[in-house]
Amino acid sequence: MSNGFSGSFSSAKVDVMVDTGNPLLNLSVDGFLKIGAVAATKVAAEETYDILIRQGSISTQKFEYSLKRMCKEGACWGAVAGVYVGMQYGVERIRGTKDWKNAMFSGALTGALLSAATNRNRDKIVMDAIAGGAVATASEFLNYLS
């Protein structure tokens, strides 16, 4: 079994193929890369707007700050996506079915896990689990519409 990486970009679709030999790891890395790229692009757009509107020019220091911010947000968003996609794969395998409930469970588990990693407040962890489940379920419902 070989490891590989390939990608393509066309109008509204980005495909990244990662083959680590493990489906769970493949999906998690794929989610990390795609959503991390979205976050980095978001920061690039924000920084470009800031330069055009407020400053008019860019210094080396501002450029370095922008790159660091792109990497930091890309890694953060990518990590959340990687955890969520991995959870969804696991829930799907455990339940033996593919439906919106997988997104709900996966979102709740991801929200709880990430919240527990950053704080010890039980009420906050529960609220983050509820929010994660709600956002993931809403996203899944939107996918059913298309």
Fold and architecture overview:
The model has no long low-confidence stretch (mean pLDDT 88). The two termini are 35 Å apart. Strand 1 and strand 2 form a beta hairpin. It is globular, with a radius of gyration of 18 Å. With 146 residues, it is mostly helical. Helix content is 77%, strand content 10%. The protein contains 4 helices and 2 strands. Helix 1 packs antiparallel against helix 2, helix 2 crosses helix 3 and helix 3 runs antiparallel to helix 4. The longest helix has 36 residues. Strands 1-2 form a two-stranded antiparallel ribbon.
The secondary-structure class comes to mainly alpha
Distance between the termini: 35 Å
Helix content: over 70%
Average pLDDT reading: 88
How are the strands ordered across the major sheet? 1-2
- The helix tally amounts to 4
Shape: globular
Q: Tally the beta strands.
A: 2
SSE pattern, N- to C-terminal: EEHHHH
Proportion of residues in β-strands:
5-15%
Enumerate the spans where pLDDT stays under 50 for 5 or more consecutive residues: none
Which tags fit this structure?
two-stranded antiparallel sheet; 146 residues
Give the topology:
Elements: E1 4-10, E2 13-19, H1 23-55, H2 60-95, H3 100-118, H4 122-145
Antiparallel strand pairs: 1-2
Short description:
The protein is mainly alpha-helical and 146 residues long.
